[in-house]
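Q: Here's a chain of 144 amino acids. Please give me its 3D structure as tokens.
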Amino acid sequence: MTASASAEKNRALVLRFYELMSRQRFDEMFALMSDDATWTVAGKPETFHHAGTRSKDDRAAGFAGFVKVFSDLRMDIRSTTAEDDRVAVEAITRCRAHNGLVYENELLVLLRCRNDRIVSIYEHLDQQTSLAFERALKDSLAAK
């Protein structure tokens, strides 16, 4: 397989991953990751509690709790760039909480693929947007 064919195969894998995420088919989504895969959110855990590197199983557990807070999820892929084992994704995520609050954030993600599986995800997002949404969600739940 040529390098460009391999890169295109990796791009298709990553696009399928985000399609399954948008459909909240998380078991199928995580099946596209290797068992030893890691998912890193950029930043310092002491200032942004989502930051740090976690295992596939840890992230899967987090996504299992997603439906308790959110009724829907949409990943709008703006662009992708694929080269060798890497796929870069520019995306907008939009989620609606059960109480109607909307979370929207911009993402820049670098995924690495090997043997038709995602082996690592390195995600950058606007941390302040995430924290502001969490405060608003907490305030709205406290007001009930």
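Q: Can you summarize the key feature?
A: The mean pLDDT is 94.
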